Amino acid sequence: MQETSQRRRKMRELAATEVARLWEDNADAWARQARLGVDVFRDLLNTPAFLALLPPIAGLRGLDVGCGEGANTRHLAGLGAKMSAVDIAPTFVRYAQASEACDPLGIDYAIGDAMQLPFDDGAFEFVTAFMSLMDMPDPGRALREIRRVLRPGGFVQFSILHPCFVPPRRRVLRNRKGKARAIEIGDYFESTEGRVDCWWFSTLTGKERHEVAPFRTPIFHRTLSQWFDLLAAAGLVVEKLGEPTAGTAPHANHPVIEDTRVAPMSLHVRARRAGD
Ligand SMILES: C[S@@+](CC[C@H](N)C(=O)[O-])C[C@H]1O[C@@H](n2cnc3c(N)ncnc32)[C@H](O)[C@@H]1O
């Protein structure tokens, strides 16, 4: 019994090292492309919806987990929060620090693993994680760490790929005009445990895809009820959910946004420390 749990822990540690390596390999191209505005799903839909769901954060101490090149951390600092941020990939942290050096917002960036946060207990009034927790081999441990660094009464708000509508297998079914009419999904109950997906930002043209290598990202799918159980086990109580969808403005050039009229791509969760 003990041997089995030790083996599982070793496997998770191995997966964590591999995950860190994959993200470091993606980081330079990802940061460059994100800064050219290629990640329209993030910039035009997901982040605005995330910020709209946030309670007021001006004057609060916050931590952004899995900050990438720091664009979203900078939005939080722009709302008046005193931000720290961590990412497992050193290259992402370097990009974020370079922005901070050019245009200081008082953000403290560090290389760090969400599953072993380098901060004291109760150091923050809120924690955010934009599209990062579903990339981790042990999201339950990350959530426990997040709760540990939250002050009593503090909250975490995170976004993940929607477990119901972006499970391990997904295909958008389109009409003749290319408009999404349904989403075909499969393997919802399959735990992918680090399956590596290769993909480009959807706005890249075929020519551009010949010029840049695809991202290789590890996927650790969890079902909706598993996420709920992980939050409860970490001592976090859900208080608000969000499912961003394209608003009234047409986004004809961006099917990745238009498709969310049929079903959301991401799930936003706000949860508070239980028992305070
Ligand atoms: C999809 S990207 C999102 C980046 C950023 N939050 C954004 O919205 O632009 C996922 C990020 O999570 C980071 N990440 C993955 N596993 C991590 C871990 N265990 N600890 C900290 N960061 C991690 C990756 O390096 C990457 O920057």
TrEMBL record:
Keywords: Methyltransferase, Transferase. Pfam families: Methyltransf_11. This is Class I SAM-dependent methyltransferase. The keyword Transferase applies. GO terms for molecular function: methyltransferase activity. One of its GO terms (biological process) is methylation. It is an enzyme of class 2 (transferase). Its EC number is 2.1.1.-. InterPro entries: Methyltransf_11 (IPR013216), SAM-dependent_MTases_sf (IPR029063).
